[in-house]
Amino acid sequence: MLAVALVAVITVLWWVCSSWREAVCGRGAALLPGVRAPLLLIAHPDDECMFFAPTILTLVQGQRPLSVLCCSTGNYYNQGEMRKRELVQSCAALGIAPSDVTLIDHSDLPDSPTVKWDERLLSSLILHHIKEKNVDLVITFDESGVSGHSNHISLYRAIRSLHSSGQLPEGAVIRCKKCYTEPC
Ligand SMILES: [Zn+2]
After folding, report:
1. Are 1 and 62 in the same domain?
2. Counting CB atoms within 10 angstroms of each CB, which of 55, 130, 159, 179 has the fewest?
3. Do 102 and 160 share a structural domain?
4. What is the pLDDT of residue 32?
5. According to the UniProt entry, where is the signal peptide (predicted)?
């Protein structure tokens, strides 16, 4: 009887661990063969851990040199300076070196749920970063910004525009939050 109970406990533990591992790093790793320089494109400090932590862990565990481009300081409550530091600390906890974290602090890209960022400006800044870092995979929000935040949606529209207009470097791939399993 004790042995049966023990096997049952082990089976449940194995199932839980397997499910967790699959959710965190299994499926994503298989979807990203040959990626050299992935970029996580976010709007605010904390987006990385709130929306993309499993993706980050997958890439970092796969020994990929993931970089992060954050397009604002997240200054909606006048806490931009603190949030800048928190972004670096959060990324470090997730396995991303401070040197691989870039933050844009531009007055025309305010942290606001009601402001759509200028597509031309945003696209230009993102494209510059992609070329500078030789990025071959961009991961960002979907068309609804996951949470509906206007700044998140602006990122989707900017990267979509770059893709549609053929400005992305040859071979660069986009993945967004919702359609992570398929090309956008
Ligand atoms: Zn955000």
Report:
1. no
2. 179
3. yes
4. 66
5. 1-19
Distance 72 CA to ligand 1 centre (A): 9
Q: Which residues of the chain have pLDDT under 50?
A: 2-4, 6-29, 181-184
Q: What is the pLDDT of residue 30?
A: 52
Residue 184 placed within a domain: no
- pLDDT of 74 reads 97
Give a yes or no: residue 92 inside a domain: yes
What's the gap in Å between 70 CA and the centre of ligand 1?
A: 9
pLDDT, position 184? 46
Distance 121 CA to ligand 1 centre (A): 19
SS (H, E, C) the chain: CHHHHHHHHHHHHHHHHHHHHHHHHHHHHHHCCCCCCEEEEECCCCHHHHHCHHHHHHHHHCCCCCEEEECCCCCCCCCHHHHHHHHHHHHHHHCCCHHHEEECCCCCCCCCCCCCCCHHHHHHHHHHHHHHHCCCEEEECCCCCCCCCHHHHHHHHHHHHHHHCCCCCCCCEEEECCCCCCCC
